[in-house]
Specification:
Elements lengths: L17 H18 L28 E3 L1 H9 L3 H13 L4 E7 L3 E6 L7 H8 L13 E9 L7 H19 L3 E8 L4 H14 L12 H13 L8 H27 L5 E4 H6 L6 H5 L5 E4 L2 E4 L10 E4 L7 H14 L4 E6 L6 H11 L8 E5 L3 E5 L2 E2 L12 H8 L1 H9 L7 E4 H4 L7 H21 L17 H10 L2 H10 L4 H20 L12 H23 L9
Parallel strand pairs: 4-5, 4-10, 5-6, 10-11, 12-14
Antiparallel strand pairs: 1-3, 2-3, 7-8, 8-9, 12-13
Length: 572
């Protein structure tokens, strides 16, 4: 058999490989064009690098469909259906392909031989937790900064979305072969830290909160925790007292952020301090370090970076006339630091209020001599709202005006929060329905997927009790000829491509939606194809083969949920 339909052996585990199938079809078409000696009006050079090959939504239209004839029709000067009629027999002659039909204006609908798709089960069971992983992004070193926060209070709902989505993006990138460093940027410098210190000092001494200071019950709780750890702090006065409260409050609040994220399943490789960037002299030396790039200039006593050379709406000040460094200088120093650490791509996940940063960040990358299309990527996340009992929840018990990550988890749990936050593209606003996410019903997407995993786990336990063999060596794909079996197996084969696509477009939501599709296909298969023997019926090869298809489905669901940082329960 061809490699895309290889039967299991020591070197090739088998299964339908859509990428290999696409390459085989493209090679067959190229050979046909070459042998036609110009009769088709095409040269092999006109062929695309990758063949368009998709799974039809209506499975009556075949297992795969390609628009290659429509794509080449103009170059050939032919009607797409006429070109398709030339390609169809060539494709149909490939091993494992049962037939090729021409549909509509020239689509090629490809149907595989019965049972051939089920061979994917061998590959899934052999690779286990590694099924779906690839090396397409091998060699890429990526810095993924997906939370940037002040250590002055609890992480809020916006941070929560990035904590889930950013971590899931990291997971799919790693699964696609990239080397990823998850980074948290600590905004521990500036006026906000001073106000934080003053607010803690006031709370400790029973004084009114300073103007523009921090409110919320957490400030009083934090102040009491500081006093408990450092009783002598109450004897400090003036600037010394504020400095002591700032340092103690900073450490406690940052540790709380770490602890909350750990419970949420999001772990950072690097916690990078903005203050350390300044203390090292990296920020102060930005202009000097960029001097030789030719985009630094002086005007009105200030030092500027000419970012308008690269599409920014205005040039940016690095050093003000009074010598003060700007936030943009910090941004520039931070990017240069990431590149110096060896990252060839720096991905920033920013909130909805940071749209204006995209152009200036790309411009500073260009000013540094890098390629803004290759070395930086900025993703903007939209706002999240929470509804409970039909009303929007706006107030926090602890933080006053913001809903915190910890409170969301208390309401719906880690799995429901992570899955739902990752289920939607980040560039769309999101509304979380607390009541829906608490439901144990198919209306709740995370429950729907997790229940499929638990249901299969129960079935496999029963299979063992009934004496059904679960030895992959006894799997016989030729027995799985039912439409439902082939639908499920064919969808399972798409998982590696789904993972790669999710990595390339930074869209873990594609994994979530795919898992829901798999769960639906499994339920349909289970309803129409009896897996376990009934009554006194003895286990047969068909029971084993169907049970192993179930086992492969369970493995895929577990792998997909792992990419989202969501558990795969065996009992619910």
């Amino acid at each position: 058999m061809a490699c895309y339909l290889a039967k299991g052996n020591a070197d090739n585990l088998g299964g339908v490989n859509p990428e290999e199938l696409a390459r085989a079809i493209l090679a067959a078409i190229a050979s046909h064009i070459a042998s036609s000696a110009g009769a088709l009006g095409l040269e092999s050079a006109a062929l695309p690098e990758h063949l368009p090959l998709e799974r039809p939504k209506n499975r009556d239209h075949g297992d795969y469909a390609s628009s290659i004839a429509l794509q080449l029709a103009k170059a050939a000067g032919r009607n797409p259906r006429e070109l398709a009629s030339n390609f169809a027999p060539v494709i149909a002659a490939l091993p494992g392909i049962a037939k090729v039909d021409i549909a509509g204006p020239g689509f090629l609908n490809i149907t595989l031989t019965q049972g051939s798709q089920a061979a994917i089960v061998r590959q899934v069971l052999a690779r286990g937790a590694a099924f779906g992983q690839g090396n397409a992004l091998a060699g890429r070193s990526i810095n993924l900064e997906f939370i940037s926060a002040n250590p002055t209070g609890p992480l809020h709902l916006g941070h929560t979305r990035w904590a889930a989505v950013g971590d899931a993006i990291a997971r799919v990138l790693i699964a696609a072969g990239a080397k990823v460093t998850r980074e948290f940027y600590i905004n521990d410098r500036g006026t906000q830290m001073d106000l934080f210190a003053a607010s803690l000092h006031a709370a400790a001494h029973g004084l009114p909160t300073p103007e523009n200071g921090y409110h919320g019950g957490y400030i009083a709780d934090l102040a009491q925790a500081i006093i408990a750890q450092h009783p002598a702090i109450m004897n400090e006065t003036g600037e010394a007292a504020l400095a002591a409260f700032k340092e103690a409050g900073y450490r406690l609040q940052l540790q709380e952020q770490r602890d909350v994220l750990d419970k949420f399943g999001t772990h950072f490789d690097v916690w990078y301090s903005e203050k350390s960037l300044h203390d090292s002299g990296a920020v102060a030396s930005v202009a000097q370090r960029l001097e030789d790039k030719g985009h630094i200039f002086q005007s009105e006593g200030a030092t500027w970076l000419r970012t308008t050379d690269f599409g920014d709406d205005k040039d940016r000040v690095l050093v003000k006339a009074d010598g003060e460094l700007t936030y943009f200088t910090s941004d520039t120093a931070y990017y240069l630091d990431k590149r110096a650490r060896g990252f060839d791509l720096c991905i920033y996940l920013l909130g909805a209020d940071h749209h204006g940063y995209v152009g200036r960040l790309k411009a500073l990358v260009a000013c540094a001599g890098d390629n803004p299309e290759e070395n930086i990527e900025v993703l903007i996340g939209q706002m999240v709202k929470i509804f409970e009992n039909g009303e929007e929840v706006k107030l926090s018990k602890r933080a006053g005006t913001i809903i915190t990550l910890e409170e969301l988890v208390e309401k719906v749990g880690v799995d429901a929060a992570r899955y739902t936050l990752s289920r939607y593209p980040t560039d769309t606003p999101l509304t979380l329905d607390v009541d829906l996410l608490k439901k144990h019903s198919n209306d709740n997407p995370v429950y729907y997927v997790q229940y499929a995993h638990a249901r299969i786990s129960a079935l496999l336990r029963n299979a063992k009790e009934l004496g059904v063999s679960l030895d992959p060596e006894e799997f016989r794909e030729e027995l799985l000829v039912h439409k439902r079996e082939n639908e499920l197996a064919g969808a399972i084969a798409q998982f590696p491509q789904v993972v790669l696509t999710a990595a390339e477009v930074r869209g873990p939501h594609k994994v979530a939606r795919y898992l829901e599709e798999i769960a639906g296909l499994y339920h349909g298969f289970y309803n129409d194809c009896r897996v376990l023997p009934m009554g006194s019926e003895k286990p047969e090869a068909l029971h084993t083969s169907r049970a192993l298809l179930c086992a492969a489905t369970r493995q895929l669901l577990a792998n997909g949920l792992q990419l989202l940082g969501v558990s795969a329960p065996e009992r619910m």
